[in-house]
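Q: Could you fold this chain for me?
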Amino acid sequence: MDIDNAKIKEAVECTKILRLPKNNLLTFGTTNIYYYLVTEPVYADTKQTSSETVVREGRVIAEKPKIVTPYYLNNIEGFSVNARRYFDQLIKAYGHSIPGLLYSYRNEPKEMNIVSDNLLAVVAKLNDEINKKGDPLTAIIKGMDEMWDIALIKFILEMTQRSVGGNIRQLDARGLLSMDDKGIPADARAKIEELFGLVTRGEADPRVLKEELDRWNIFSEYEDRFLNLFRK
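A: Sure. Below is the predicted structure, expressed as structure tokens.
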């Protein structure tokens, strides 16, 4: 293990989710989670409790989870060669069309403050403020100052693991996990119809629709309809 991997491992082990949001990730909409990420400053003496605490605030936006298959994932850009080999293994083991959920997140940092108080006292005050507001989608995360984003990633992973079971049950109850004879999930068909509507109204780039059709390898099925979008 090199020094970078050792540091990442240390950052993961130091991460503590001190307050999880009361609500899970939404199945049929966007989830907006506000977070406070608290750390002791990097310059603090590790032998004693620091009298200062770094508080980072921001939002994690979780998009509606998307039903995908190994074949679909293999056609998304940005994955490494090793990742694509893994997708190939999944396809061989389970077939092209085994459904899974793809979660998309973005982080919107807000501000960072250094508070003149120890970490436990700061966390207690934050908990009191959240309780008064009654916000069910606020989190408090403790991390390592110089690698605070690792703590945020671990939090996102924990939220995903906590939510995935319920998300799958709700999707299945609506029949969205069912596959047609081409191995396309009902949810994917619904997404394509949504994109056609957005492009028609000028609210989405046609290239996004074309990419989605190509990832499912069904552009030929929709080709005439797609080209009609450009005919006046």
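A (continued): The first strand starts at residue 16 and ends at 19.
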